[in-house]
Amino acid sequence: MAEHRFINAPKIAKIALGATVVAAALGANAAVYASAQHSAETQAVQANGGPEQRAAKGHEAKVNVTAQQVLSLAKAQVGTSENAAGGGTKFQQWYAGSQRGAETAQRDGGSRQDYLNAAWCSMFVSWVGEESGARPQVGWDAYTVAHAKWFAANDRWGTEAKPGAVVFFSWSGSKSLSAINHVGFVVKDNGDGTISTIEGNTGNGKVEQRVRPTSQVVGYGYPHYAA
């Protein structure tokens, strides 16, 4: 699958998946998982509002996770590949079964099932945040533009490459958030006009380590990691 942001669900769905197919794709424990996710997330939303509202209110969740821990988990996923339909990854399956998937499907149109075969670069970043315990700082979204705006709304947006930062790309070289096409994690600034990254949903449909020119970077989101 080509590297690109998640577009409104009706526009990117490759196949119509019924409830039975979705349940199979998410695994035998999907219903239990989704129910638990819904309960926990509903309580959080009721207490603090949704992710966009929390950002607007300036709420700052703390995590005890370092940048290196996040990068180590991301690196461990290198080689994970999508199937011929552009789906089948655990990142898509997790997101489709999450309450956040329900929220963003309602926001963007379509349904959670559509995420099972959707562009998954931002879902990969979100999954790493979830699994590492850094989700409150990494954020979670399937749409790269919305993910970047979440960092900007939290005053955690800038132009300096830092290890563990979430990097947003525009292949046109635009610096507009609305032009973002792709997202990944910064491993390091190479000091020569390039950065080393770990990204999901590359042009090869995999999680890969890449070297990218900074001319394609729109900006960086900065999670507040533990020291």
UniProtKB/TrEMBL annotation:
<protein>
    <recommendedName>
        <fullName>Peptidase C51 domain-containing protein</fullName>
    </recommendedName>
</protein>
<dbReference type="InterPro" id="IPR007921">
    <property type="entry name" value="CHAP_dom"/>
</dbReference>
<dbReference type="Pfam" id="PF05257">
    <property type="entry name" value="CHAP"/>
</dbReference>
<feature type="signal peptide">
    <location>
        <begin position="1"/>
        <end position="30"/>
    </location>
</feature>
<feature type="domain" description="Peptidase C51">
    <location>
        <begin position="96"/>
        <end position="224"/>
    </location>
</feature>
<keyword id="KW-0732">Signal</keyword>
